Amino acid sequence: ATVLLLRACLVLLASPIYILSFLGIWEPFCRKIFFPFFIENMCAVHEKKTKKRKQDLFSNLPDFKSRSGELKLLEIGTGCGANFQFYPPGCKVTCTDINPNFQQGLSRSMNKNQHLHYERFLVAAGEDLHQVPSGSVDAVVCTLVLCSVQNVTGTLKEVQRVLRPGGAFYFLEHVAADHSSWKYFWQQVYYPTWKLVFDGCCLTRELWKNLEQANFSQLNLEHINVELPWTPITPHIIGYAVK
Regarding beta strands 218-225 and 235-242, do their DSSP bridges make them parallel or antiparallel, or are they unpaired? Predict the structure, then answer.
């Protein structure tokens, strides 16, 4: 009852956005203007908190090069290219995102990271990567994306399809807090309004369970906290899985 009451209060506070959504105005505005702006700035803050973690996470990417010595990498939900700096020199990158409105931030990241070879840019959802041949990439990267895909299981199936045998899937995602915690209480309060404002982002997904059920041959997963003040997205999981 308390959660429902607080949710109602939050709806009242965010009523202009709900009205714009009802009128069909908010979603196109969010995708074209607000969300790309928010993501680029939020990623800058998130990056400061997770840089060392990401450096450690991606440090073994060269271990997954193909026999030819190439490393072909597919990133799901590339956004503004915040992960480019962590990829090894000469890495061949295919970028995908369901939202095509990140061009400015993406161009800035590309200019800063000319040690990479950018192969393709695809407008595609994580659940439907049909433009990418099966078994064609050595690594797949997905950070802060599984919270907003329509189907987590479907996305992980596509990850496994495009990976070659022995390839790796790298992830860093915010997840649901412990159900007995105040963090989870506030995640439930924020959930509907947060999802509307931030383009489908779900606060209470237990993504580690999806990964455990995805039948990877090896799963290296760690629960961590990323301290982002005044946000409900502190709990994260980080790691990689091998096909």
Answer: antiparallel
Whole-angstrom Cα distance, residue 22 to residue 227? 34
Give DSSP secondary structure letters for 2-47: HHHHHHHHHHHHTHHHHHHHHTT-HHHHIIIIIHHHHHHHHHHHHH
The two structure tokens encoding residue 201: 């982002």
Q: Using CB atoms within 10 A of its CB, is residue 123 exposed (0-12), middle (13-18) or buried (19+)?
A: exposed
Select from 79, 98, 96, 77 the least CA-distant residue to 36: 79
**C-alpha to C-alpha distance for 221 and 232, rounded to whole angstroms:** 21
Q: pLDDT digits over 79-121, tens only?
A: 999 999 999 999 999 999 999 888 888 999 999 999 999 999 9
Task: Please say whether the beta carbons of 59 and 38 come within 8 A.
Answer: no
SS3 (DSSP) at 123: strand
pLDDT digits (tens, 9 = 90+) for 203-228: 999 999 999 999 899 999 999 999 88
Using a CB cutoff of 8 Å and minimum separation of 24, what contacts does 229-234 make? 232/183, 232/186, 232/187, 232/190, 232/194, 232/203, 233/174, 233/203, 234/174, 234/177, 234/183
* Complete edge-to-edge strand list for the sheet that includes strand 218-225: 117-123, 92-97, 72-76, 137-143, 163-174, 235-242, 218-225
Claim: this prediction has a pTM higher than 0.90: yes
Domains, the chain, ordered by start: 1-242 (3.40.50.150)
Distance CA 133, CA 122 (A): 13
Alpha-carbon distance of 242 to 138, in angstroms, equals 10
